[in-house]
Amino acid sequence: MGLWIYLDGKFVNEKQAKISVFDHGLLYGDGVFEGLRTYSGKIFRLDEHIERLYKSAKAILLEIPVSKEEMAQIIKKTIKKNKLKDSYVRVVVTRGKGDLGLDPRKCPQPSVFVIASKIKLYPEEYYQKGLSVVTIATRRNLTESLNPAIKSLNYLNNILAKIEATNAGAMEGLFLNNDGYVAECTGENIFIISGNFLYTPPISAGALDGITRDTVLQIGKTVGLSVSEKLLTRYDLYNADECFLTGTAAEIIPVTLIDGRIIGSGKSGSLTCKIREEFHKIVLEEGVPIY
Ligand code: PMP
Questions:
Q1: Among 45, 177, 189, 219, which residue has the most ligand 1 atoms within 8 Å of its CB, making it the best to mutate?
Q2: Are residues 144 and 281 in the same domain?
Q3: Which protein residue has the closest C-alpha to ligand 1 atom 5?
Q4: Which of 24, 132, 212, 238 is the most exposed place for a label (fewest CB within 10 A)?
Q5: What is the pTM of this model?
Q6: Last residue of a domain, one of 81, 96, 117
Q7: Angle made by CA atoms 267, 263, 167, in degrees to the nearest 5
Q8: In ligand 1, which atom is closest to the CA atom of 207?
Q9: What pLDDT digit, counting tens, does each position of 195-220 carry?
Q10: Does 279 reside within a domain?
């Protein structure tokens, strides 16, 4: 039967969910997106994801044709229509149909679509044994060029990084920014634990303002760690007691090898496990009910 997709005001079967070849989202990666999760019939951090979507859109001068309240309803309805309780939801706003030139003013009607489905980024075993990460040669987009805070449809910087990591035989790629400081991984934020400190790079280092990142910064405090956003070098990572990545799809996943250096004990660290447990509690306790 296939999934029901929300597309510009209607629900259509996935086979009928089509976008024009003249859509600038496709021609130029001109658009924005979000990825959300639902747990046991509740949407985690719905308002935060919607806020970020509208901020990304504002940054590229794209007017989303529905209000934030309507967007929240559209997301809920799409999940309901597909009778999902635990799901991954992709919200996309494209610049819309235009001509073959770049000018976004030639695209009068942005397109909105929402896919509610499932996602599995890493096999379960990696949540125990941890990921291997390599530093990649491709640098994170310059903030002054294409700000990594914008969750745009142009993810080639990240895809090039993913290809490099895969070619090097690693599960993930570590992005440095143009100054050589740690930015983030291809689709996740990065954290380290050193002694009693929980560190993550500031957004200005070239990271997305991750919603899981934000939740983990809060959890860090509740489990008694001193939390701080700090510029990090690879040296800091290699010598950390624990390291993990955060993202809506990946949740919290340990990193146990970076550029051939074993991190901490070489297994998921005890504090990482504790933060993961707390995270799983929070996603079930908090969230906007769908049903
Ligand atoms: N960095 C990048 C580049 C991302 O695309 C994402 C989202 N997958 C993240 C970090 C994590 O953000 P969030 O926790 O909001 O999913």
A1: 189
A2: yes
A3: 187
A4: 238
A5: 0.97
A6: 117
A7: 95
A8: 1
A9: 999 999 999 999 999 999 999 999 99
A10: yes
